[in-house]
Amino acid sequence: MLDFTVALTLRARRDRDEEPGVAVTIGRRRIELRRHHSGDGPLWNRLERGGLYRRSLLPIGPIAIVYYRRSLTYGEAVGAPPRFTDAVFDWVIDEFDDSFNDLAIASLRYHQDWAITFCDGERRARYQDLIDRLSEPSPDFTDEERAVFAASGDRLVRVDGSRSMLRPPTDRERAVYAAQRERTAEWEQRMVETRRDFVGVMRELWS
Question: What highest taxon heads this organism's lineage (predicted)?
Fold first, then answer.
């Protein structure tokens, strides 16, 4: 039996930071129609990013047709086990730190309520403590600190009536930034300790 999945995406790119055009994605392939730049020349099957992608470009009048083919997922590129070679794991592989807490929380919640292994009251409490600690958001500015920024005015100031420059922070703003850095450092240390505690229960997370 042949089993395959096709993902189809059609979108018009209208973000100011993106090239205007239309892109169609089918599985590992993507076709883009965008504006033809004067520097565009025909490209045929050029490898990019060390072989992760192949790209072809065909200029036709004011339009350029760009064809991308994903040659390798990140998991395939690094020889990961087959269960990690799907493209859905690319973000986890690339941004592991950003994904760690969410993955840990998902596994803890699963083993609290859904796994076939029994989760007694003591274990459930330990898992919930880890979930709560891993869920702590990074510190933000307080309302009082935002009021300091508002009272100090815009950091961007006009120079010569045509260009903008970033003005030096006021003493009060410097104090706010210093307090924020201190809170962030304390939060990061708590995250390090919490992740170590999570590693201590990882051998229990199976079913």
Answer: Bacteria
